[in-house]
Amino acid sequence: QVQLVESGGGLVQAGGSLRLSCAASGRTFSLFAMGWFRQAPGKEREFVAGIDRSGRSTGYADSVKGRFTISRDNAKNTVYLQMNSLKPEDTAVYYCAAGSCGTWSARYLEVWGQGTLVTVSL
């Protein structure tokens, strides 16, 4: 089973950048599709970005398209979320998740990290 640990969150001014990392334990990381999700205070969790097992296919929420980039390094068992041009509305706890079914759809993601807080100030 894969275990996930996110890092890289913090406080940043609007317009700034952060890179989140999600380190996975276990030797089967390359078999999992990965997704990033976020949950802002008082709101439901929402999809941010997803990437397939190989890293060749990615998907993004409309709200982050063109600003965020998801990538993975299977040799390092890590998935990344590069966040540029951050806005106050990006403030949330960001979670990574893994799914062995090959899709980053939330309903098929079996393992979730504990989350990392991103705060974007004006």
Helix-strand layout with pairing:
Layout: E1 4-7, E2 10-13, E3 18-24, E4 33-39, E5 46-51, E6 58-60, E7 68-73, E8 78-83, E9 92-99, E10 111-112, E11 116-121
Parallel strand pairs: 2-11
Antiparallel strand pairs: 1-3, 3-8, 4-5, 4-9, 5-6, 7-8, 9-10, 9-11
Instruction: Please bin the fraction of helical residues.
Output: under 10%
Q: Provide the structure class.
A: mainly beta
Largest sheet, in brief, is: 7 strands, mixed
Rounded Rg: 13 Å
The number of distinct helices, counting runs of at least 4 residues, comes to: 0
Counting copies of identical and different chains, the oligomeric state is single chain
Distance between the termini: 40 Å
The average pLDDT value, as a whole number, equals: 95
Overall morphology: globular
Beta-strand portion reads over 45%
Counting DSSP E segments of at least 2 residues, the number of strands comes to 11
Low-confidence stretches: none
Short account of what is shown:
This protein has 122 residues and is an all-beta fold. The chain is built from no helices and 11 strands.
Report on the structure:
With 122 residues, the chain is mainly β. It has no helices and 11 strands. The strands form 2 sheets. Strands 2, 4, 5, 6, 9, 10 and 11 form a 7-stranded mixed sheet that branches. A 4-stranded antiparallel sheet has the order 1-3-8-7, with no helix packed on it. A hairpin with a 6-residue loop joins strand 5 and strand 6. It is globular.
